[in-house]
Design brief:
single chain, four-stranded mixed sheet, SseB_N
């Protein structure tokens, strides 16, 4: 009998993926998915390595079904398909909130392209998240 190994798509690998997996349930709250993205480490792939604090990152940008540019973001390093690593071999971790804070106004985002634990946000959706969500320390500062 041959032992079978699980592929990464067989189950959620972290809190963000658990929220993504339950997002289509009737009692799911989309706010939970957004908060999980903002408050967890996510991963970009870049054509350049980060050598220091002043290094620039050239993250992988794909085209969605409508031909619009979307930033490729991954919830776990194992979600990065080899075809993406051919174009951008460096996997970089950062907080989801940092990505939304730096993405720009014309770029959408796709989480885990090609994976069942994924979704896409258009530029308008990103703008709405920026408007409606604040980091916990920012919210505390504004309440004072």
């Amino acid at each position: 009998m041959t032992e079978q190994t699980d592929s990464p798509d067989n189950g959620p690998l972290n809190d963000l993926e658990a929220k993504l997996a339950s997002a289509d349930q009737p009692d799911a709250n989309p706010v939970d998915v957004i908060l999980a993205f903002l408050n967890n480490e996510v991963y970009l792939v870049s054509s350049e390595a980060v050598d220091g604090p002043d290094s620039s990152v050239e993250p992988l940008v794909l085209s969605n079904a409508d031909g619009q540019p979307v930033l490729a973001v991954f919830s776990h390093p194992s979600r990065v398909d080899d075809r993406f690593l051919e174009a951008a071999p460096h996997v970089l971790g950062t907080m989801g909130s940092a990505i939304l804070g730096n993405i720009g106004d014309e770029l959408g985002m796709v989480i885990n392209p090609g994976s069942e634990f994924g979704f896409e946000i258009d530029p308008e959706g990103i703008a709405n998240i920026r408007r409606d969500f604040r980091r916990a320390d920012e919210a505390a500062d504004q309440a004072e």
